[in-house]
Amino acid sequence: MNFNEYPIESLMYITNRPEIVFTHGKGSWLYDNNGKRYLDFIQGWAVNSLGHCNDGMIEALNKQAQLLLNPSPAFYNGPMAQLAGLLTQHSCFDKVFFANSGAEANEGAIKLARKWGKKFRDGAFEIITFDHSFHGRTLATMSASGKPGWDTIYAPQVPGFPKADLNDIASVEKLINAKTVAVMLEPIQGEGGVIPATREFMQQLRALTKQHNLLLIVDEVQSGCGRAGTLFAYELSGIEPDIMTLGKGIGGGVPLAALLAKADIAVFEPGDQGGTYNGNPLMTAVGYSVISQLTAPGFLEGVRARGEYLRAKLLELSEERGFEGERGEGLLRALLLGKDIGNQIVERARVMQPDGLLLNAARPNLLRFMPALNVTNEEIDQMMAMLRSILDTL
Ligand SMILES: *Cc1c(COP(=O)(O)O)cnc(C)c1O
């Protein structure tokens, strides 16, 4: 392979990347520098909600690029206000702050909760989070995450994130003390292996946090923006959190994230929160296109139908091959393999000929599926056929 055109050795080594360079994409398909195409069921890690190079997003990006890139975060711009309005209209929240990544939105949520604790709860600052959770890669969000090994890698940690067990309300109750200000969780643990919090657990959490005057924070960076078949995953449990964070899917592929809060929780004062690119009109214009498309009549019904279709196909395969079933919501699903063959499948799927298949093993014993929300049933069938042929080679 000739990499002269691509000096990849100049990139800092942070992970093992395959020796291909992706050059373009459309919908559910991605193309590399050799002209090979790949059916993409990763979509930038549940990021490209509308697939690669969605027409509406391109139009919004082009139009905004001609008008205004950056007036400064100290001034209002049109797209930032319009996207905020769209998000408050379609959620239980009243106030929005835009950021550039999920981790940064979560940092904002942590700061907002600590500020609220200072103001109303005598300086309470501890935020109960969960084992196997993932909240990002800044020091505070790594400390909030329950990923094995992350407590020591960049020690010392940021203090104040005791860990409970998902779907075990007693484990949460046990950690509550005078210093506790909030509970933060992913309604569906994504990186942890697509583990949904049960509806019962979410309702118990809401009751418990109300009872102790604590904030409930949902990290919907992965589960939000239509991924779970509803615009936001908290809707599935019929509760209203106090704070929510969004990332990934809200930008559909561009760097955009958001922190949302109820009006009485949004207690930042001038100077408390900011960021050079917050509310950047180029990104928020794209986000507006994404959220408009997701909330168009019938779109989310379609996501739920395709999620059910994928679920049925995965269950059928599981029966056939003696796997351990599947789990998830909407188009965030996992096939439970029952043995550690996930990475091997991922590898073989990518190098498969003539077309490759992009899959992810969030854990070695499962495959995670996060296709474009507008994936077609035919593409799901194509993926299943490719997966079957790989399984035949194992
Ligand atoms: C990906 C992810 C994050 C981090 O988002 P970045 O944009 O990578 O900073 C945070 N929380 C959850 C649940 C995620 O899936």
UniProtKB/TrEMBL annotation:
InterPro entries: AcOrn/SuccOrn_fam (IPR004636), Aminotrans_3 (IPR005814), Aminotrans_3_PPA_site (IPR049704), Class-III_PLP-dep_AT (IPR050103), PyrdxlP-dep_Trfase (IPR015424), PyrdxlP-dep_Trfase_major (IPR015421), PyrdxlP-dep_Trfase_small (IPR015422). Gene3D superfamilies: Aspartate Aminotransferase, domain 1, Type I PLP-dependent aspartate aminotransferase-like (Major domain). It is found in: Cytoplasm. Its main location: cytoplasm. PROSITE patterns: AA_TRANSFER_CLASS_3. Its cofactor is pyridoxal 5'-phosphate. It catalyses: N(2)-acetyl-L-ornithine + 2-oxoglutarate = N-acetyl-L-glutamate 5-semialdehyde + L-glutamate. SUPFAM superfamilies: PLP-dependent transferases (SSF53383). Its EC number is 2.6.1.11. Binds 1 pyridoxal phosphate per subunit. One of its GO terms (molecular function) is N2-acetyl-L-ornithine:2-oxoglutarate 5-aminotransferase activity. Pathway: Amino-acid biosynthesis; L-arginine biosynthesis; N(2)-acetyl-L-ornithine from L-glutamate: step 4/4. Keywords: Amino-acid biosynthesis, Aminotransferase, Arginine biosynthesis, Cytoplasm, Pyridoxal phosphate, Transferase. The keyword Amino-acid biosynthesis applies. Homodimer. May also have succinyldiaminopimelate aminotransferase activity, thus carrying out the corresponding step in lysine biosynthesis. Belongs to the class-III pyridoxal-phosphate-dependent aminotransferase family. ArgD subfamily. This is Acetylornithine aminotransferase.
